[in-house]
Design brief:
The structure holds two protein chains of two kinds. Chain A has helices spanning 4-11, 14-26, 31-36, 42-54, 74-102; strands spanning 58-63, 66-71. By secondary structure, chain A is mostly helical. The longest helix of chain A has 29 residues, at 74-102. Chain B has a single domain (6-145), classed as Alpha-D-Glucose-1,6-Bisphosphate, Chain A, domain 4 (2-Layer Sandwich). A seven-stranded antiparallel beta sheet of chain B has the order 1-7-6-5-4-3-2. In chain B, strand 2 (39-41) and strand 3 (48-53) form a beta hairpin. Classes of the chains: A mainly alpha, B alpha+beta. Chain A binds chain B through residues 1-9, 11-12, 17, 20-21, 24, 71, 76, 79-80, 82-83, 85-87, 89-102, 104, and chain B through 1-5, 7, 9-11, 13-15, 19-20, 23-24, 29, 32-34, 78-79, 86-87, 102, 104, 106, 108, 111-116, 121, 124-125, 128, 131-132, 135-136, 139-140, 143-144, 146-147.
Amino acid sequence: MVEHADLFAALGDPTRRQVLNILAERGEASATAIASQLPVSRPAVVKHLGVLDRAGLLEERRQGREVLFSVRPEPLESASRWLAVVASEWDRRLAALKRLAEDS
Amino acid sequence: MQIPDQIEREVLIDAPIERVWALITEAEHVGAWFSEAGAESDLRSGGAMRLSWEEHGSIEARVERVEPERLFAFRWPLFGETIAQGNSTLVEFSLAPEGEATRVKVVESGFAELAIPEDQQRRHVEENTEGWKGEVGHLVEHAERVTA
């Protein structure tokens, strides 16, 4: 249930981007471990993890009493591809504008 | 890891700035390079804009800023036909003279502010894959229709 819009919304918050970067660096981490690297509380981290999870960006596995989170990159790749398409459409439009403007 | 919140593109056009400005902002010219089925716009901040494509129909956009021969900005819906909470991005054209030519820069921004409203999220969940495919379809459609 991943939407590009939810994904961009999830990535729009700087703390959530930090959470993702921490996970990317460490491979996997618990909410407590993530909170120890950020100036926010563990409950705040849990909330951010929830948003990231709904955007399809997390995998989680249980280890003993902890849940370990890691990054699921597929939605990022898909969003990057989509943004590349949007950018190439602008290139085409600007090329058409240039032809039109210079054609006189 | 990072997805940018904006797209920036630019082009150097060998034409005077007043001509490029007219092509970008005057509705009768916009159809020639942007929305081939026509455009209407009320060229002032808050003014209504309508862009049309033969294949994909029309959308309602909104003029945000007009600084003659310098800056033209509008907001347009990325999915849906009209601007609503969390469905639009801002497009800014900035123009600058470069000798006899004109540099045009386009910035499309606000991807990070996109969001599906909660009631629609629930509906998407209920519709399951149907909703997901539909939304991607709209996004791809948006990306495609603007070429036409």
